[in-house]
Amino acid sequence: MRLANLRQDIAIRQDMSGDNFHIEVDGQTINNRGIAGELIVRRAAKLQGCFGDDVRIGRFGGFDLFLRPALNGNAEIVVRGKNSYSARVTDTALGTIRSVESTIQGFEERATKMEADVLDCRKRAKELEGKIGAPFEHEKQAVSGADPPPGGDRGEAGPDQKPGSQPGRRRTRREQ
């Protein structure tokens, strides 16, 4: 579902690179990255110490922009399409805008990673399906509630045994 939503977000994304840059912040359309970033940084500063719902601040690249107050006193930018994506409010105006642009421009990379994750999960699921119904290695101990033998099934001495002592037999204080 998230991958399908991400693909839809890629399809509706508008090109905002270079001279195509424009952003709506608080009802104003701005084509200067520095000014836009400064407005967002100032708006985020006003939210310090506030908690609650996301605050809509504008629109960029076909997506709604929100500020989300964080518990640490900072705020993050939420880019909301079919999915929600996080961008950072940084110390600088241009750094903040760069974070928003990078978030939106990184959709393809994010989709590629999600596709790889899905394939990996499917592969792991097939591997694990073969283990369904197989006996559990320590089933007897689990059912009886007994402690597993120290050293596992290799017959190695556990941390409370002398080497060469009987597995499953704990040493007394005198033997230690």
Structure overview:
- The N and C termini lie far apart (59 Å).
- Helix 1 packs antiparallel against helix 4.
- The chain has a 6-stranded antiparallel β-sheet, with helices on one face.
- The chain is of the alpha+beta class.
- The protein contains 5 helices and 6 strands.
- The longest helix is centred in the last third of the chain and has 23 residues, at 107-129.
- It folds into 2 domains: 2-111, no CATH class; 140-176, no CATH class.
- The model has no long low-confidence stretch (mean pLDDT 84).
What would a concise description of this structure say?
With 176 residues, the protein is α+β, with helices and mostly antiparallel strands. It has five helices and six strands.
Overview features:
176 residues; 6-stranded antiparallel beta sheet; alpha+beta; 5 helices
- Structural class estimated from helices and strands: alpha+beta
The strand count comes to: 6
Oligomer classification: single chain
Helix content: 25-40%
Largest sheet: 6 strands, antiparallel
- Termini separation: 59 Å
User: Spans with pLDDT under 50 lasting ≥5 residues?
Assistant: none
Radius of gyration: 28 Å
